[in-house]
Design goal:
Elements: H1 2-16, H2 20-33, H3 44-56, E1 60-65, H4 73-93, E2 97-102, H5 112-128, E3 133-136, H6 143-154, E4 160-165, H7 171-178, E5 184-188, H8 203-218, E6 223-227, H9 231-243, E7 252-257, H10 262-270, E8 275-281, H11 286-295, H12 297-309
Parallel strand pairs: 1-2, 1-8, 2-3, 3-4, 4-5, 5-6, 6-7, 7-8
Helix pairs in contact: 1-11, 4-5, 5-6, 7-8, 8-9, 11-12
Amino acid sequence: MTGILERPLRSVILAAADSPKIQRFVRKYGMQLGARRFVAGESVDDFLAVAREVNGRGFAVACGILGEAVRSRKEATDASGQYCALLQRFAAERIDANVAFKLTHVGLDIDPQLAFENAARIAQTAQATGNSMRLDMERSRYVDATLDIYRRLRQGFRCVGFVLQSYLYRSADDLRDVLELSPNVRLVKGAYLEPPSVAFAQKGQVDDNYRRLLEMALTADGYTAIATHDPKLIAYAREVAVQNHLPLRGRYEFQMLYGINEALGRSLVALGYRVRLAVPYGNYWFPYLMRRLAERPANLAFFLKGALSKR
């Protein structure tokens, strides 16, 4: 029954996100109503304070500046500059964090070459500071361009990673095609609504494909970021790692979203695993919040509870 209800509920929430009235209300009151559970804040200082606190609890951090689909070359260049500045601050302040960003945030919709150049600038800074960076995956129409830029970057930088979404039919083939590069890949289920022509519709199918991708990645050379809050998938990943005699650290890590089931993350840290929390910040937090609410009814319930308690 959950699988039957899940997609309509996601559709309703994501459709509501396009309502100007809802956007105005959530942008005005969202942080005080509970959005700060999922977002560090709007400024870099907000983020750095949270990153230090998260590090203090044993977690690494993946920083994302909330923004996508910029419309000018200046916006794209400015965004890449912000990521470079973050990497430099991480090194200077010894913060255990890397960066992850959407290529549309650094110019992909404007010019793929511009996006490549901006991403290369970030990769150069990551390499110079002994860190890493990751290309986030967006809607299915961006997969080819994202993988093309990843391959181009990988020719010059080993510090570059990318993301694959298990709800897309094509992801197993995409992973197989890059295994020769010993890739750094983050596996996620996927947070966008996609048509049945390109994506699995049922949760069980998405989970099965996640297991398939997980086994492919962990049994090949490279580094795997296992991004899920699903205890069953985490248990499966641990089992595959044990069967293949992988150490607790060095070949893979677990990743989770800031503010969601951190108790599970803490239990993995206690067992000796490396766990990284994705901690976003920025003014463009509304779409991110809507996707988090659409993914799990429990997130929506938390947000609505906060909203009602403030009335």
